[in-house]
Recover the amino acids of this structure.
């Protein structure tokens, strides 16, 4: 019988749409804007994280498009590192707060925020600023540092990562919102939306033993997030995720939003100056039909603040 640890314990400015080519947006080459059609991907720049999210979610019809009355929502930021917000090591706390607020305004019964952090959990939650802002927005910030919170699952269609232990809150959630921060990664070249899902899994060392890129793509076959929001406000351009210097952090002031986890990674990786076809897990995600990396085929809505 599945445990219900958290549920039983009651943890229970003006925008303009730009039609310019995004080759001018740090080499982001996107398709044409079609404002009258719900976009496949929204790209916003030149704003603060919370304001950019307001504009992006409005462009796809509001949070009610994804969250219905009485639903349980998991918001999964990157809270991996015991570093302050200005380092860009974790998802921007203002962005997390605003997402939580939108979920609750849309009628969510509960919004949980958690991550299986790399550094010490309780301290990292605080240092990142996410614990404070998520709670201020109305979320329940849940622990993820014990194996007892994770349940074994089978991943259908997986080639390498056939099983995993997944945080029980994800098993209970009606809506799954994935909120990575864009960073360079020494091993995978980039850590964005697909790789951020490693934070809902207990044994991440399995990924490295069985093939990092393969496992990143395989896990998406278990559960694709309903919505992905990439924080590209402060971007680690090199020496990520642990050894970035101040000179490696670029203030890009950008945000991407899409229900397609492969497409959003394909778009975001261009901000790092890389091509999606050269990132193996993105290519695998495309080949496994998890999403598409062919950005030219998408309706992409671009907003400049």
């Amino acid at each position: 019988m599945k445990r219900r640890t958290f549920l039983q314990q009651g943890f229970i400015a003006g925008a303009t749409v730009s039609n310019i080519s995004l080759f001018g947006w740090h080499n982001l080459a996107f398709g044409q804007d079609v404002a009258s059609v719900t976009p496949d991907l929204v790209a916003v720049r030149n704003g603060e994280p919370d304001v950019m999210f307001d504009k992006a979610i409005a462009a796809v019809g509001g949070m009610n498009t994804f969250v219905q009355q009485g639903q349980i929502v998991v918001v999964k930021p990157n809270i991996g590192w015991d570093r302050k917000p200005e380092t860009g090591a974790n998802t921007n706390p203002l962005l997390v707060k605003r997402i939580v607020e939108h979920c609750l305004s849309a009628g969510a019964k509960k919004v949980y925020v958690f991550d299986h952090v790399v550094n010490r959990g309780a301290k990292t939650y605080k240092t990142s600023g996410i614990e404070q802002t998520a709670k201020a927005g109305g979320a329940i910030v849940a622990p993820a540092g014990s194996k007892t919170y994770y349940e074994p699952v089978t991943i259908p269609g997986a080639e390498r990562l056939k099983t995993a232990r997944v945080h029980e809150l994800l098993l209970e959630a009606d809506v799954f919102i994935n909120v990575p921060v864009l960073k360079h990664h020494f091993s995978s070249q980039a850590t964005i939306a697909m790789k951020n899902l490693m934070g809902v899994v207990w044994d991440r060392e399995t990924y490295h033993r069985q093939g990092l890129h393969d496992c990143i793509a395989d896990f998406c076959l278990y559960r694709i997030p309903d919505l992905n929001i990439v924080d590209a406000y402060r971007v680690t351009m090199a020496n990520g995720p642990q050894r970035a210097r101040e000179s490696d952090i670029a203030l890009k002031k950008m945000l991407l939003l899409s229900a397609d986890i492969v497409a959003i990674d394909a778009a975001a990786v261009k901000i790092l100056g890389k091509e999606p076809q050269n990132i193996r897990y993105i290519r695998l995600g495309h080949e496994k039909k998890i999403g598409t990396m062919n950005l030219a085929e998408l309706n992409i809505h671009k907003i400049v603040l």
Remarks:
- The chain has one domain: 36-304.
